[in-house]
């Protein structure tokens, strides 16, 4: 739509189209403000230069009504921009469930992507066109930021928690992916590509990766290997909350707060269980932060989520 | 009231007739232990000029490196360059730039006082500043810090192996200098105004410095706490910012920006004050909406404390707090917009003279406006998500902090140079430098808006090859800008020795500082002036004006 504008970046996602419209409106407004200010300045500077004979009589003495006028005008304009931008932000930053969920681990200095089927890639992300892609992102060290200019989406990846982001690419192609939060020596090379493919191409690509185990299955293995199942299985004698159907529900904690059991919650419970003791259960879960890395936790999260969707588990 | 001679003809005492603050004492000791605010201002001048060129050297290396995607510097060196560029330019040039030099020199003179309220604290501020400067130079010489000037945790606490602690310590110490200077101005402006100098007769520069001093006093302690905790975490492993110990990396950002966003206004408010002096003087017309200008200054100072999290819209803060901070950011833009309109309309029915100081001031208004409208884009949440962390942001804050503030600094330098040194500079070359600054600045930083919207991340030593032409343009502009910044050093230096002797009031300005000889005597005024009217009593119809002490001058 805006390709006729010189130096315009690729626009390849539904998110990007919305941001484009807002940005164009702001560019227009900025141009209007600049033209007004520069125009007034040039006209006054020429007309009222020292040598000119223009009349300086009747200098404006009371100024408040001008000032009230342009205060009101700017405030009203700014409020329109605010509401427009804030509404879109809520839409951009509340990730829907998504057709495909991809787990992203940021690590100095690479992006590790894990597809639900267990396919893995580094510094590249293959996705199908016209599907809502939901990213669940973790950092193993410092703060990184996931940025795809062509989709106009960005979110910091802060260590110690999980962040989510979504996009829906609408144009087949290869797009630039970068880290936009300075993360140390090779920050400038922590870049990659997002490859948007047609549905059949994507399906073919998935099968060519030679993977046999889905992410949830890998998570299930970790679940057993690290002894999680010893307490959380339904046959266990230990008094621990069941994880079946947990994902997406409201959890009442010992301290009285209520949390939505999203990816971040599950992640935080594994790394910092004492802060998230569930009401009615003893605080006996050990801290797993020494034993598991962010990649492992993402697999566990995938597994626990799959417990909530029997159809997914059947696969 | 007496009528004296025309304003643009040399007048008043010859420099040598009465001893002035420069000639009264000549020893090195008399300079190092001076309690004269004017001499301390010059001491600060020497210090910050030195740091301006250190920071400028780092910027030069960065632009040289970015001229090609392959680059020139090792990644580790580049990372240290932009870190030191940021730290030095922010804390060792921009924050003290106008307050500690022109504020120090002219606040007492403009309110009709003999000195600041606490001359010894003023001198101590300079020593503390230099101590912090030595620490930052130590960090620089030893190899530099490599975290960016924002010291984001946990990169700065756990991962960075440079001289992060020394750099943070320098920032910590530097804050005390800021606080001392700010405190001194607040007390001076409250307590030491000459008879008749009511609040609503204060020149807008004094209002600007007052607003900035309040911000310095209240915001800087938070930075001190934050850098203290950073040091403690690095040495003792407290875990405050470390998620593996239950800490929160974002806590650093909240505290850092609680200081550093107001700090942006510490950098721009004095510039606004300077421009509000220059434009009426060279337009020979009262400033449009004096009361509105003071309200705008104070509103900006107060609102600046409630916008800090707009640096964190993509950092994972709650959606609701992001919405509140976006709204507050739009609010703080309103008084800034009012100021731009008022400056512009001040030209209406003026009798405009395009001297160097005026060219810098007009440049300030244009660059500030461009920085302001791009600031609106960044305040808009959905657009910030796109351009945050890219060169768009780099361009935006350079328009404000360099384009606007440094233009105001040079404007002030040319406006008050005759008063400070007693010498006139060559006007032609000064105008040329002002125009060159404007051209060089836009060539350097406008391409960075484009690069940012195309998606180029900041703090990167390399970039995809398709962005080279914009980067090359930016580097070329930077070389022009460098010349424009070096030129004043040459002709102002020359004018110190060879410049024509300056009259007491070469520009025909109305402030009290112009009622005393150039350079001023040791205690500014022979007799404490009595103020009879507000600032900017210029009459554009015949070019006449009335000084604040009530003396009328013909056009």
State the major sheet of chain A: 5 strands, mixed
Structural class of chain A: alpha+beta
Helix content of chain B: 55-70%
Name the poorly predicted regions of chain A: 310-315
What number of domains of chain A? 2
**Biggest interface between protein chains, with counts per chain?**
A-B, 82 and 88 residues
- The H/E string of chain A reads HHEEEEEEEEEEHHHEEHHH
Show unreliable segments of chain B.
Answer: 1-16
Percent strand of chain B equals under 5%
The count of β-strands of chain A is 12
- The H/E string of chain B reads EHHHHHHHHHHHHHHHEEE
What does this entry look like structurally?
The complex is a heterodimer of chains A (315) and B (555). Chain A is α+β, with helices and mostly antiparallel strands and 315 residues long. Chain A folds into two domains: 167 residues, Immunoglobulin-like, CATH 2.60.40; 100 residues, Cytochrome c-like domain (Cytochrome Bc1 Complex, Chain D, domain 2). Chain A is 37% helix and 21% strand. Chain A has eight helices and twelve strands. In chain A, helix 4 crosses helix 7. Chain A is elongated and about 95 Å long. Chain A starts with 13 loop residues before the first helix and ends with a helix. Chain B is mostly helical and 555 residues long. Chain B has a single domain, classed as Cytochrome C Oxidase, Chain A. Helix content of chain B is 65%, strand content 1%. Chain B has 15 helices and four strands. A four-stranded mixed beta sheet of chain B has the order 1-4-3-2, with no helix packed on it. In chain B, strand 3 and strand 4 form a beta hairpin. In chain B, helix 9 packs antiparallel against helix 10. Chain B starts with a strand and ends with a strand. The N terminus of chain B is likely disordered. The chains are: A alpha+beta (315), B mainly alpha (555).
